Amino acid sequence: MPLRAEDVELLEDVAAEEGGWLAAAPAAPSWSRRRASAARRLTAERLCELAPESVLETLATADGPPAWAARITPEGRLLLKYRELRKGPVAPWPEEEGDIPGRTRLRFTETEMTFLRQALAGTRGIAGLAAVDAACLRTAVAEARPVAGTAHWVLTATGGQLDAIEHVLRMESLVGTARSYHRFLHAYRPFPYRPGPPGRPAGPGLW
Fold this sequence. Notes:
- This protein is an alpha+beta fold.
- It has helices at about 5-15, 30-45, 55-60, 75-85, 110-120, 135-145, 160-175, 180-190, and strands at about 20-25, 50, 70, 105-110, 145, 150-160.
- The protein has a three-stranded antiparallel β-sheet. Strands 4-6-5 form a three-stranded antiparallel β-sheet.
- β5 and β6 (about 150-160) form a beta hairpin.
- α5 runs antiparallel to α6, α5 (about 110-120) crosses α7 and α6 packs across α7.
- It is rod-shaped.
């Protein structure tokens, strides 16, 4: 279960202790008990360790040894670093190693990937989809990878893959929804463009 606020506060205090061991200081009984409970919880999570009696004796003052003392573990320091990272921006999905000439980085929704998979199945024997470049579509679907934590996919596509994907989305726009096709044209095709039927050049990079 998540650490309590007092657990995190104690962990930060222990991490800042230059001497290694943070000894329990005289305080109000209720406050001292809460700190002791927090120290035990942190120890149970292996984020701190409690000092044995032999160490408590070395930490004794004129008032005697402390009731307890704790020091942070490597796991505890790692957790504090991770906690700070969570406050920062989310790293973007890693780019390919450098720009690849002749390729375009695409981003698809899960629904759009379904359109491509359905069309790919249709190229295996349905004459009506014979105009779709099955090889390019197949490699595009195979090379697409999911973006962790989202319902999106990314692909760095060749010109042939780009054409095949556009072909599928245009067909979908004619029988289903045109939203994906319009988004594709807006994001990945230069304007002006002149959509045309498969097999007939209609504009720069189309079909």
